[in-house]
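hey so i finally got around to running the thing on that chain from the lab meeting. sorry it took forever, my laptop kept dying and i had to restart like 3 times. anyway pasting the input first so we r on the same page abt which one it is
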Amino acid sequence: MGMENLAIGSLPGVNPEQVAIRRLTGAIGAEIKGIDLGQGWDDAVFKVIYDALMEHGVVFLRDQSWTVDQQLEFSKLLGSPAFSKKLPFYDGTYEYVSVLENDGTQLVVGDVWHNDNTDWVSPPMGAVLHSEEMPEYGGDTLWASTYAAYDRLSAPMKQMLEGMTAIHDNSVVAAMYSSTKSLRSDGLQADETVEHPIVRTHPVTKRKALFVNSVYTRRVVGMGADEGKALLEMLYEQVKYPETQVRFRWEPNSVAIWDNRCTQHYAVSDYAGFRRKMRRVQIEGDRPF
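ok and heres what got predicted. didnt touch it at all, straight out
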């Protein structure tokens, strides 16, 4: 699907003749054009963005003039903002808006394929990320569809995984990032373990998606260490195929909104000597099933 013209009402930041969705890859991602959320939104604008998010897993908007408060208010339409256990508060005051800031020399948070916070009993539904300052080059983010990752599996493997669960915790993150200023030290304790299905069903689309990642998933329930590790390593590989991915080149005032229930993402660390600053609102989710 290329550019799709959409029927939408007129707002100061919306040109009805230019609002369009451009699909970016066969598996995941779409760019939405013709909307400036800094000029306001209504139910029709939100529905365009939400429906595209449910269809494509991650959506992108460029040249967004909105404020921190507007980003937070828009995020509340997706669900209740989630308190980040690790990232610093934006401006030191916004408890539900996190800042990701790096000069390219610090350890980068997120430069490995992962879903956010699957160590939580109810992991985040998703997130709204806005770029403030971007390097001259580098600093891209990739997303992968875990629907597509699941679909890659053979029928016998899908049948075997049905009903299987895995243990998730925060121990790897605590060990990896204990010395970086990119995270709050008070959020780096290794929390208690949680158990999630290896294959989850999306509560809206009803599609099945892989729900394991190397950052938080520790072991398969009911399997020995060796065979469980081999299974998890094979499943981790499924998001690494280009056919499952989309890559986004950030510019200042770009926005990405993603569904954490059916995607993983990877922040590329290739901008030494440049400054990268972003602000993120996470959205509370439900317990996977």
